[in-house]
Every structure is written in C-alpha cells, then in structure tokens.
Design a protein that fits this description.
By secondary structure, the chain is α+β, with helices and mostly antiparallel strands. It has a single domain, classed as Immunoglobulins (Immunoglobulin-like, Sandwich), CATH 2.60.40.10. Helices cover 20% and strands 35% of the residues. It has helices at 2-17, 23-42; strands spanning 78-80, 84-91, 95-104, 112-117, 122-125, 136-144, 150-160, 166-176. The strands form 2 sheets. Strands 1-3-6-5 form a 4-stranded antiparallel beta sheet, with no helix packed on it. A 4-stranded mixed beta sheet has the order 2-8-7-4, covered by helices on one side. Helix 1 runs antiparallel to helix 2. The longest helix has 20 residues, at 23-42. The termini are far apart.
C-alpha cells in the first residue's frame, strides 16, 4: 500500500514540477495531493495501478529497481509534533511560514539530506547538522500564495537516514482571490 501511494504521489509531484506555471495542472495536482492525504489519514486503501513503462523508439524499458530493504542496525526516527498545518484563510500574495518541530526518537543520529516542496511556492529549510538521539530540530516551511487562489494543499517531502527514507509534511490554506 505504502509503495503504491509513494508511486502515485511521485508521479503527481513530477507532473507538478514540470508544470508549476500551469494553473490547471497545479489545481489537479493539489486535488490529487488532497486525495492521497485523505487516504493516508484514514488508513484507506488506494486502488491505483502501477505505472506502465512505454518503450520509446522500439527499445525495451529498463528493469525496475528492486524496492529498498530496511537497513540493519539502529536507525533514527522522526517524531513530529504535527504533520499538517492549516494556515486558514489568507490573501493572494501573502507569504506565510510555519515551523514543524520534531524529536529524534530513534537509536541513531538523524541526518536530513533533502527536503522539497511539491511546488516552487513551497520552500522548506531544514537543519544541516545531525540531530542526536533525543535531540530536537525544526523544519521551517514558507508558502507564497501569489496567484494561487482557492484551497491549496502542498506537501514537503523529507529525505533522511530513517526507514522509510522519506517523510511527508503537509500545509494547506484557503487563498482569497486578489481584488
């Protein structure tokens, strides 16, 4: 289930990144992100099929890599105080930010290697130094609502030395259209 959701979400993010200037595609991606988040929050099961690889120029598709396995040994673990923040109603053009606080409740130092927003309008900042076992950290997320009217659901995907290797945080807002 989690693999299917990650594949589905990855395809949505790729589509969004390729089209950040296209408001119709951004609206569709936002809708998909909301559906993924709802399924994850309810423990639901998505009936999403795996993507099909289509050969180009009569070449055979590359072999799909085997899923990563959980590494042996002690691992760090994120424990966020919250994984969703709702900015409520804001005005078109507002730049808002929120700090997600976390604790490393695992058994090894936590190293965040990357954090990416689902669109250029969502920019995360994360600690670059390792977070020791029991240590705390903050991930700051800025959202620029310029030209983003309506309900917005954005995702920040964090890559770290945890298992699984990615963690998602979400923000949402209702952006009032500029007058």
């Amino acid at each position: 289930m989690r693999t299917i959701m990650k594949t589905f979400f990855s395809l949505a993010v790729v589509a969004l990144l390729a089209s950040c200037g296209n408001s119709e595609l951004e609206r569709r991606i936002t809708k998909l992100e909301g559906k993924v988040a709802a399924l994850e929050g309810k423990g639901g099961v998505a009936s999403v099929s795996s993507p099909t690889i289509t050969p180009v120029n009569n070449t055979t598709p590359a072999a799909t890599p085997a899923p990563a396995e959980k590494p042996d040994g002690p691992l760090p673990l994120f424990s966020f105080s919250e994984e969703l923040h709702d900015f409520g109603t804001i005005k078109d053009g507002d730049v808002v930010e929120h700090v997600f606080s976390f604790t490393n409740t695992g058994a090894a130092p936590l190293i965040i290697s990357d954090a990416k927003g689902s669109c250029g309008c969502t920019v995360p900042e994360w600690p670059k130094e390792p977070i020791p076992v029991g240590g705390t950290g903050e991930l700051r997320v800025k959202f620029n609502s310029k030209n983003k009217p309506g309900i917005q659901n954005k995702t920040v995907t964090i890559t770290a030395n945890t298992w699984p290797t990615t963690q998602r945080l979400r923000i949402k807002a209702n952006v009032l259209k500029a007058e």
